[in-house]
Amino acid sequence: MDNILGDKEYAKKDLQSRLKRVEGQVRGVQKMIDENRDCGDIVIQLAAIKAAINRVGFTVLACHLAGGLKEGIENDQDANQFLDEFMTVLKKFS
Questions:
Q1: CATH code of 66's domain
Q2: At 8, phi and psi to the nearest 5?
Q3: Which of 6 and 92 is assigned the larger pLDDT?
């Protein structure tokens, strides 16, 4: 279930690409701070970073949900147990 990204190479590459972009954005903010740039401009960049991280997180959550549902159906597992576990993971992300 947790390895669903490994089964979908395109999703894995997309997430890696998004995280590399975030890494570049963070370096850009560090440079902005070093250059004493306007705080408003820095906050705008921080908001973009936050949104990008949220998109990555929701993608991972969606893969986790899809994998858990698939595994549950294939193995005739209790849906309530998976939903409880998924809600715990979701709350940690929120």
A1: 1.20.58.1000
A2: -125, 90
A3: 92
